[in-house]
Every structure is written in C-alpha cells, then in structure tokens.
Write a structure and sequence with these properties.
heterodimer, A: mainly beta, eight-stranded mixed β-sheet, five-stranded antiparallel β-sheet, globular, B: mainly alpha, 11 helices, about 0% strand
C-alpha cells in the first residue's frame, strides 16, 4: 500500500534546466578522476540510474548513497555497492522516494586510496505520458465488460431484477464519471504543482538617463522569494538573453538582487527586438531553478556600440571592461557580464570566428547522437593559429549554453558538468570534503553532456582570452539514437 | 478448454474454502505490503507482498470460476462477484502500471486505478463471504482496516475522521454477520478480524529488514507491525447480545438499537484503548504501541510520537459524534438488510 507515502509529498522546488534532466559531473573523488552520469526517474518514487566511470586502473569498489538534503546524512540509507560493468565503469540504481534536493555521495576505493564526492540531484516528476492507444482500448473493453457483468450480476441476484440492474448501472455510471473528474483534477494539480517546469519571471526595462535598467520580478500570483539564494561561481543569478528570431544575439549577465522579490541589471547595448530570457538560481537547500520569460529590448542609448549590429557579417563580442562590483543598485555592468552578436553559424560548421580574429574549433568527430554520453570538446586558437591561453572565467575554464532550436531544451554547462557548483559546495560542506577545482587545460575545454533528444541545437561557448570574454557559436545537428 | 475443466472438477466445498482462503489472503498480503513499503521503501512490481496479492487474486478467480460453473443452477452470486473482482483487479493493475510510470505518487494516493483496486478487493472478499457466510466476514473487516489504515494510528484515534470512517463501515459488516450467521456471528467475525490483523502485528516484526531509500526518519531493522487491531470485538458482542433478544418492532428499531450500541461501545472502548496504546505499557511485541512503530519515511515531531494529533477541523466534537452515531445507525440498517438477503443468495 502506497497511501502513506503521500503524507510527506509536498511541493518544494522548480527545476534547474529546461528539458535536460540528466546530470553530468566530471571531477575528482579524492585521488580518482570520475565522470558521473545520473538518469533520474521520470516519476517518484522511482529508481535513478547512476553510472560512475573511474579514470585509470585499479578501482576496486564504488558505492553510492542518496542523502536527502533537508534530512541530513544521518537519515540516509546504507551506501549501495555499484556493479562493475568493466574495469572502469560502475553502475548502481538508487530508489528516490520524495521530491526534493538530494546529494548522491559517491565513494571510490582503489589502491590509491579512498575518495568521495557529492553530486547534487533534484528529484522531481519529469513528465507525464499519454495513455497508449492500445492500453486505452484494452481498459475501455475491460471497463465495458465490468459494467455489463455488474448489471448482469445485479439482475440475477436481486429480487426486483429490473430495479437492481438499473440502480447498479446508475451507481457505476456515477462512479465512472466521478473517477474521470477526479483524474482530470489530479492531472491539473500535478501539472501545476509537481511536474518539473521552469518558473515564469517578469522582465521590465526602465530607462534612466543613458542606461536601460532591467528589472526581474516573480509573477504577482507567485509565492516565490529570492531571499534564500547562494552564489554559484560568485553570482546569485546567471542570466541569459537570446534575440528572436535567429538567436544571433547572446548575453550572459549577472543581475544584482535588490530585495527578496527583485533583481536588477544594467542592460548592455544589445540589438533591439524581442528576446527570450533564462535565469539560473541556486537556493540554500541546494535546489537550483531556471526562470524563463520574454522581454522587448529597446535600442541602446549613448554611443557605446550602436552601430555594431548593423555590421551584418562581423562577429561582435563584448565583455564589461571595468569592474563595478556586485553593487546592490547597479549603475554599471558586472565585470563578468558578456554579450555577443554575429551571423548565424553554418549548421554543422566546426569552426567559429571569435572577436579579435581568433577561432574556436568544435573537435568532436562524427555525428552527435541523442542520449549518448559524450564530451563536447573545443579548442581555442589565436589569430595566428597558435594555441590560445585560456584564463579563468568565473573560476572556470569556460561556460557553455545549449538551446534546442524550438526552445524545448536549455541548459548551462561547465567543464564539471551540469551541476550547480553552489549546490555541490553546500553538500560537500556537509560531508566535509571539498572538491578541488579542475585546472585550466591549455587551449582546450571539454563539457560532459548527452543531448536529451534529436534536433538542431545552438551551442554558445564562452572563454576568457586576454582579459576579455569571447563567445564561440555552433549549430550542432543531433541525430536520433537508432 | 482446459482452464475451464480444471476448476470445474473442484468440489464446491473445496472451492468455497479456497475462495475464503484467497479472500483472507487479500488483506493479509496488503498489510504485508504496507509493512514492506514502510520498512524497506523500494516498491517494485514483483515485490514478494505484491506477488502474494496476485496469488490471492488468482486463487480467488479459479475457485470462484469453479463454483460459478458447478453451482450455476443455484445462482452463486458470491462466486460471480469474486470473479468480477478478479477482472476488476486485472483492469486496475494494468491502469496502475501506466499511472505509476506517468504520475508516480505525486498526483495523490487515491487515484482512479487505486480506487478500482479497492473496489476489486471488496468484490473478492464480499463474494467469498457470500459463499461462506459463517466465516467470511472477518476478511471484509480486515480489508476495511487496511483501506482506512492511514486514519488509524493510535494518535488519530481521538479524531473525527477516525470515528466517522469506522462508524460508516464496520457496523454494516457486523450487523450483516449477526443477521445471517447464527449465534454470536458478529463477535466471531470481530474475533477473526482481530486474529488476522493481530497475526500480522505479531509475525511481521520477526523478519529482519531495513530501509533501502531515504530519508529515514525512523530507522528500522525488522518489518514494521501494522497498528494493533481495533477492539471491534466489544461493540460486536453488544450487537450480538441485542440481536439475541426477542425482536421488538421492525428492522429500523433493531438498527437504531444495534447502531447506537455499536457507536457507544466502540467509541468508549477505543477512546480508552488508544490512550493505553500510546503509553509505555503498550510498548511491547504484543501491542506494538508506545509511539515507537512508524514507517521510516514519516517525519514526526518527537512530542507528537505519543500524543493524540490535534489537526484543526478534525476535533471529535458533539455534532461530529452525532454524525458518527447516525452513520453507525445507517450502516447497521443496511447491514441487517444485507444479512437477511445473504441466506437465499448463498448457493
């Protein structure tokens, strides 16, 4: 009986991506380099599938333990031993009970020693499926059989046969229509309150003097508050703007929080027009969240770069030149803000021109297949064709943003994967082992990922060169898995 | 057609006994399942308690089919009803598989396939009872206990939903048993219910098991016992004693007497017994009380472990007590009518 489980199912969180639920992590578990891939269950309770790939030889044992954040480590079940698929790959299945924020604690043992790492995972129902037609037809047939046979039993059993059969038919008809109404209501509530989906956000632009201020607030009927956020790579909010149609403009900004229900940023000089916006937040319980909305960007004021978007075939990248701090009332851009405008890349093109004449090369050979784990590899070259030196951009070698052409997938990747670093730090603090930051790898940068479904994707890759953030843009066709 | 030949060879007596065993197996396997999910937490389709339920329903279907064929001249309504329940169960399980993959439990527990499953279980147990009127009522009482289990922790036994649910259901079965099954039939049914549920309280905790998922708010090392059976035996005895007197007036007078007797005796006895169940004196293997036996996933404030839960809007006030008494009366009246019909219905 599952009834009691429900007593504790309460709404907790939204979700930290759009349409890309699998979690990828590249990093260190003590002395071991690991890649962790987590495929969360579509419905809860359900089993998450966890693959742990350990680089190098000699891994003897890998264990996985799901820790429910709000209950703490003492409330976690015993660690499960992962089964060895081969010398490097281990697989485990973890039953997740409730919607909420989990840390999957992974321990690797080898002759090198014992290492552990916590990977954040948000458990939430991911999708509802339509009733398959064959099952629907079977259920209707069985339902009709049950209906008629109940009438037959009543007719045969009761003294007043006609009355009994009619009463039974009316009762059953009432039960069926009551059940249908209940199903509709449950489905409506489930979609509104339980299902993973991005949260809407209102965006408004106010012009003051020579600057446009962008003001972000939750919808009036939302209970959302932003007073319990933690900084991810030093920023409370990572904010992305892409211009419709064509998505040839891309901005990565860091609005400052004004109060519990508003964020504010200075808008850089972007080409005017309708923009889609995405914002990522991490809450102090380790839950991360994606906000979505739309905003009409007005023509920029002043002279800064007004003509840039008319240079139709010139790549134009910009990052804020002067540090302004994360002031509560921004009068200047954040030093890590960056934006890019340029022509659409060719589909499948492997080379992207960067501002200043350099190039970024997408190095993966062959087709990209949906739902197949891979490393997206990029190399950056100077205008002279030599390997460029990457500088840390918000503590990372780079950032990637992936969007499916229809907007059904949007995710923000780092070389460590899809996880929120802030969430990991929360969990790691509680398990008392910090994860070392991965060193910068020369001119190459890789992102662990699997595209969730086939389609055309735009990938923006941001790195810092000579103090400036530059953006490489790629259109990546992803084929269906056979 | 072999599947028809085999059950039709079973003698009616064996078939009725098999159907009764299957009906008893339904609430027992459901209590095992509750214990399994409250202790281990991993709820797979092929878990042992689910298999036990499937076997019970299969046995019910085969024995009911045998009875329906062999006894077709005498209108074996109980067998037809049990067969109907088996088909409803298959329908509900097919529906539920899709539901669990689509919504899980996040849309709520009393979802349409779950309600259909409950209807199927009642059809099977009531069908078996109609085929074995002297001994089948205990399984129906136990099934009511399973379905109302989320309201029956000792901490809830001073609240209105508990008394309303109990008064709307148990008197129907006790009155029907009393009206159809001879001397002290209601008491025997209540005794059977106590032994069935009690057996699970005493046996399940003998098996080692621990949670395989979290969060674990109540660590466990053995299977969780279900809540101790309600003391239905006291109001059942009252109903039997009232019914044993020479009849005065019609069924409505009898229903008022027996219904009110159920309400008064049940409320008084269970109200007192609940306090005992929460006390340290009940913290033992027999009563499984003392506020220590919880599903691992229930988050309960330490002060609420051994106190009565006061949920706003659920206080057992005088108007609600009157409603409970009225429900007991109506359930008794229905039960008496059903009991009178049971003899001619039975084979």
């Amino acid at each position: 009986m599952k009834t009691l489980l429900f007593l504790l199912l309460i709404p907790l969180l939204a979700h930290a991506h759009v349409g890309s639920p699998n979690v990828f992590f590249d990093g260190k578990a003590g002395p071991h380099s690991v890649r962790v891939v987590i495929r969360p269950p579509a419905a809860l309770p359900g089993a998450a599938q966890i693959d742990v790939r350990v680089a190098g030889d000699g891994a003897e044992r890998v264990t996985v333990q799901p820790v429910f954040w709000s209950a703490g480590e003492s409330a976690a079940p015993e660690p499960t031993s992962a089964a060895a698929v081969d010398a490097h790959l281990f697989n485990a299945s973890c039953w997740l009970l409730r919607r909420g924020s989990y840390a999957l604690r992974i321990v690797v043992e080898s002759p090198l020693g014992r290492g552990e790492v916590a990977v954040p995972l948000q458990a939430t129902p991911l999708q509802t499926t339509d009733l398959p037609p064959a099952l629907g037809a079977t259920l209707i047939s069985l339902g009709a059989l049950l209906f008629l046979s109940a009438m037959w039993i009543a007719h045969r059993a009761a003294p007043r046969r006609g009355l009994a059969a009619t009463t039974t038919a009316l009762l059953l008809a009432g039960a069926v229509s009551g059940g249908a109404m209940r199903w509709r209501k449950m489905d409506r509530d489930f979609r509104a309150n339980m299902l993973a989906r991005p949260s809407p956000v209102n965006a408004e632009i106010r012009t003051e003097g020579e600057i446009h201020r962008l003001l972000l607030t939750p919808p009036a009927d939302s209970l959302a508050t932003w007073d319990t956020l933690v900084a991810d790579h030093g920023k409370l909010m990572h904010f992305f703007l892409v211009r419709e149609p064509g998505f040839t403009t891309f901005a990565h900004l860091h609005p400052a929080r004004r109060d519990a229900r508003s964020f504010e940023a200075v808008l850089p000089p972007l080409p005017p027009g309708p923009h889609q916006l995405y914002a990522e937040l991490t809450h102090e319980n380790g839950a991360s969240e994606t906000l979505v909305g739309r905003v009409e960007v007005p023509a920029p004021l002043g002279v800064a770069a007004q003509t840039a978007w008319t240079m139709a075939y010139e790549v134009w990248c910009q990052s804020s030149p002067t540090p302004a701090g994360n002031a509560a009332q921004p009068s200047a851009l954040d030093p890590d803000d960056s934006w890019h405008a340029g022509p659409a890349p060719g589909v499948g093109a492997r080379v992207s021109r960067l501002m200043g004449g350099g190039t970024m090369v997408f190095q993966n050979a062959g087709d990209i297949i949906a739902d197949r784990e891979t490393s997206l590899r990029f190399a950056v070259f100077t205008p002279g064709g030599e390997a460029a030196t990457l500088q840390p951009y918000m503590g990372m070698a780079g950032h990637a943003v992936i969007r499916r052409s229809d907007g059904a997938v949007f995710t923000h990747l780092h070389p460590v994967g899809t996880i929120s670093m802030a969430a990991q730090q929360i969990f790691t603090a509680s398990t008392a082992t910090r994860v070392p930051m991965s060193p910068l790898p020369g001119n190459e940068i890789t992102f662990p990922y699997a595209f969730p479904r086939a389609g055309d994707y735009r990938v923006w890759v941001q790195v810092r060169l000579d103090g400036r953030v530059v953006t490489g843009v790629f259109d990546v066709p992803v084929k269906a898995r056979n | 057609m072999g599947w028809r030949v085999y059950p039709s060879r079973m003698s009616p007596r064996i078939s009725a006994t098999a159907l009764l065993l299957a009906a008893v197996g339904v609430p027992l396997s459901l209590l095992w399942d509750y214990s399994w999910e409250s202790t281990i937490g991993v709820d797979l389709f092929w878990s042992p308690p689910h298999m036990a339920t499937f076997l019970a329903v299969l046995l019910a279907a085969l024995s009911a089919l045998a009875l329906a064929i062999r006894e077709r001249a005498t209108k074996p309504v109980g067998a037809w009803l049990a067969l109907w329940g088996a088909v409803a169960f298959v329908t509900a399980v097919s529906f539920d598989l899709w539901w669990q993959a689509s919504y899980g439990l996040a849309a709520g527990i009393w979802h349409p396939p779950q309600l259909l499953k409950a209807a199927a279980f009642f059809a099977i147990t009531i069908g078996a009872w109609l085929c074995a009127p002297r001994s089948g009522a205990a399984a129906v009482l136990a099934l009511i206990g399973v379905v109302t289990l989320p309201l029956t922790f000792a901490n809830q036994q001073h609240s209105a939903p508990f008394f309303l649910a109990a008064c709307a259901t148990y008197p129907l079965i006790l009155a029907a048993a009393s009206a159809s099954g001879g001397r002290f039939a209601a008491t025997r049914a209540a005794l059977g219910y106590t032994l069935l549920v009690g057996a699970m309280v005493w046996l399940l905790p003998l098996f080692p098991a621990s949670p395989l998922t979290g969060p674990i708010y109540h660590p466990r090392d053995h299977l969780l016992p279900p809540p101790f059976p309600l003391l239905l035996i006291a109001p059942a005895l009252a109903v039997d004693l009232l019914r044993a007197r020479p009849a005065r007036g019609g069924d409505w007078i009898a229903a008022i007497e027996a219904g009110l007797a159920f309400f008064v005796v049940f409320t008084a006895v269970q109200w007192t017994f609940a306090s005992f169940l929460l006390s340290p004196a009940a913290d033992n293997r027999f009563f499984a009380g003392g506020g220590r036996q919880w599903p691992f996933f229930m988050q309960i404030h330490p002060s609420a472990l051994t106190t009565f839960w006061k949920v706003p809007g659920e206080e057992f006030t005088l108007p609600r007590a009157v409603t409970a008494a009225a429900l007991a009366l109506l359930a008794t009246r229905l039960g008496l009518a059903l009991g009178r019909r049971m003899q001619p219905l039975h084979r």
